Please model this.
Amino acid sequence: MQPKAEFVHWLFATGFLAIGLFLLAEAIVGEAVWRRRSWRAYLVPSAMFLTGVLLWPVMVLFTNSTIHMLAHGSWAQVMMLAGACELALVRGKLHSPHWRLTTALAALVSGAAFLIHEQNGWFFARSAFLHHAIGWTLVAATVVGVVRAAGRPSAAARASFALVWVVIAVFLYADRDVAPVFGHLSPKAGVAHR
Model:
């Protein structure tokens, strides 16, 4: 494929898609049915923690500026925190569902980092548009994360939270460095890849 695909984005998109689909399956069948197999309860927290761990090499190997390094580092930290708290809840080490607020915090910090580190406008290139779209989607998802942490959320709230992960995955699958968005590409962005 020419140009080279955004394989790092695609790998994380696959991880986010898996998290979203696991959460959606749990929302559809209900927590009691989902946890009939005890190993299923560990899928989402483990995937969240692993995503955080894998963001560290991305921070070191695939960044080109200090602001990108800080953004990836903050994402790594909050994803690991959220995954660890979700794991502790599953294991019974933590008991209050309010610990799920760390996942809402992860969405807020990640959304803010996406918005802060993208220095170009929405229509500069597809990657700029997607950074803004992902950032605002994650900031809005914070509300759903807070609702999810407030005791016994409805199936709609759980499904909404799951679909946020799926939407983020779709955005990441569509990410290209220099490609037009809605037919528009800034002349300062460079030569379009497609």
